[in-house]
Fold these 2 entries.
Entry 1:
Amino acid sequence: MSTQHDKIIIDVGSSTVKVYRIENGVITPLIQRSIHFKEGFNSEEGISPHAKKELFDIFETLRDQQKYACVKLYATGIFRTLTNAARTRLVDEIFARTGQFFNIISHDLESFYLEMALVGKYIQNEPMLLINIGGGSSEVVVMHGREAVERHNIDIGVGIINSEFSGINDYHASVAMIDVVNFVKAKLPVLSNNPRIAMYNGGELTYMRLADYVLEPNTFFHDEEHPQRISVNNMRSRNEHVFSGLSLQGLEALIPHDPKWMHGARGCSAIAQAICEAYGIEWIIPSDSNMVHGIVRQEFRHVTLSGSFRKHLDYILEKKSHLERHGTRVLSPRFTEPKNPGETFVVFGGEEGLSPLELERHHLDSIAQSDALIVCDPSGYVGASAMFEIGYAHSLGKRIIFTEKPEEFMLNTIPAETSW
């Protein structure tokens, strides 16, 4: 089983690819490149040849530079709109060319990772708003302590703002910031809670520092990753300057290694301002935390373990125990005490009276509800039942992870991962 040592995580969004190295739990950004996947995109055909080439260029660079790292890919945004056929073609092509599984995660799982990135940072007895702004959509989550008490997905993102307001990226924006803010406000849902503090994530701490926003020490809580805060009034004032006082070329110069990233700065700032004004937010804590920080803290919500309960029960239960200690719920196997160890079909205490068919149906239902199927295959052995379950998971487009490289040739041809 791999650890957090020497791991590469690639976050592929609708307009940006970010690459991180994970070592001893420390997250280090390696690459950030703007690739506008929406240009030439078709849900039935997929991303354009140009965008695909840029994406594979990043993979090739990583393969040359990080030969021994465990690489994991997580895709969001526009990739979720691919048809099943287009998704399969893209996943198969990436696996064939790189050996990596292109894991297109659900919006729900992405939300979980974003919450995990920030949960427990601010646990006072009052609600706090988490703001995450993407290319095609945004999300607001109200946290109270460690619990998410309210979630709203909003069909407004930076790409939509840039399309709706074509002059936003002129030398100086030829659209008024207030018009963009009001446009966003009209799309926002009503909140049941009344937070006064928001955490605004996704590289915003770095951006606000580069763009000279008036930041103050964070006195709400102590955390090395969130050392500063900004009042909404100060954010509003600097946003106006970003629209009308700072040229697009001036913004691009702030990130010379990826100047196109700043083409979303004005739209993103307006969305954040609209959210804060609409919900009466007084203070913002800008955060560089993102989905990857959540993945590092907890990679799975629910998983199913597959393997030979007859031959490798101790091995499987060890994996189950490890996952549960780190917060993951193992949907199957549910129990740990075998009633008939070593027999052809192992039945656990708590499952007495259930037929093999009923138990297998429960196992398949668990796969359908899981974030991943983890195949426990010490020495590469995969039995007949596990092969059946792998085929089922593959048909659902589920993430499949082998703990060791499987012996069976065909299992090495399907898009999957090894060494969890």
Entry 2:
Amino acid sequence: MFLSISTSTGDGDGDGVPASDLGFLLHKHPARVHTATVTAGTVTVVYPIATPQECTVALVLEVDPVALVRGVGRRPESFALGQYVNDRPYAASSLLAVAMGAVFRTAMAGRCTARPELVDRRWPLAVHVPAVPARGGAALVERLFRPLGWDVDARPVPLDATRPDWGDSRYVDLRLRGDLRLADALTHLYVLLPVLDDAKHYWVGADEVDKLLRAGAAWLPGHPEQDLITRRYLAHRRELVLSAIGRLAEVDDAVPEALDNAVPPDVDEAPDGPGETPGETPKVPLVLRRHAAVLAEVRAAGAGRVVDWGCGEGALVRGLLALPEVTEVTGVDVSARALEIAARRLRLDRMSERARERVRLVQSSLTYTDARLAGRDVAVLMEVVEHLDPERLPALEQAVFGAARPATVIVTTPNAEHNVRYETLAAGTLRHPDHRFEWTRAEFAAWADRVADRYGYGVRTEPVGDDDPEVGPPTQLAVLTRRDR
């Protein structure tokens, strides 16, 4: 199992840093051979080239396939010798990631006592991993590495070079190039090589969540394939995936309740316009008008069981519990911290047993199918969709409309056209720093129509707040009703 990382001064950027100084960051002297023992076998780190102009470090993992299975008991394999005849000694996988963690741990953490000024330097790096199992092919390799700043060359390895008619194997010869910090490059490989293999060759426990967040904290929250990376890295173990997604959400959005605000607080308190004229009766804040509009639609739907997706700290949950016709409210959020705050604000510990039976708080993700949330009368997504990257919307649609299939779905989102009415909002900016996009009325209607057609819903859109004749309302609402109900 082989990995190499190279750099060169090339034409140089004028900083006079020799390529061989890469050894300081790796904490491995270029003039020596470094070895370490891991569960899978022996790790060797050498420098085939180490000059001021060019430096290459190579990591070789010699896997002992017998030692890997000794004492682990019988495992189901595709054939009797499957534990001994496999690709583990050759294909880059979680075993290589473990080896990297063992010999490059300090470099991955971005620490260098001897030359701290090198830590944040962006190096022209070239990475080569000759055999990477890629479940998803070269296209998935591109989707994983390119958003991180890499130029990607992932060439499928033929099953047999002498028999091209047999086609390609599931392995790729991977080459990456990019100007990156070395610590970032190492963490990319540490996380994404096991993700491409979609397998872990050891027991995956709760500590793997910590490993993922430590390695991916700087880049995973904003990665368009965050969900896929998280699921595969954690071996599709549901409870671990939800824990990781929740903690990533808290990194990405430090204030859970902010998900319920359509504009910055100083603007939102002034409800739905640029300000109030002295002497006028103060308007109802937009956030309260939005809550009222959603609650009115819930009542109109005759809902008994309601799920509030992206419930944050429970403001809407409290309003839903005040409706006598609502018999059960499930508040869902990916952030465990938000749910803890919601439980305190709702005073769940002080509720009577009967009242407590009406409410549940569940940690789950909008982009993750969850059977616990299926079959509700109404699902509410209030100021939620705009916090997802556009690439993740199809996963949300499948989870809500395809899997959960509530009878009615109520969606609210900001109207981007109305942003010009906020004097304190700079032109071209979004209403909240965590918003990934904001739709115009036409874009929102097109999205709602497409989802309705695909999943068998009818759709109606409504304004929320003062409906400006030129730019429309500050908030737009859609009610999607299942046609087969």
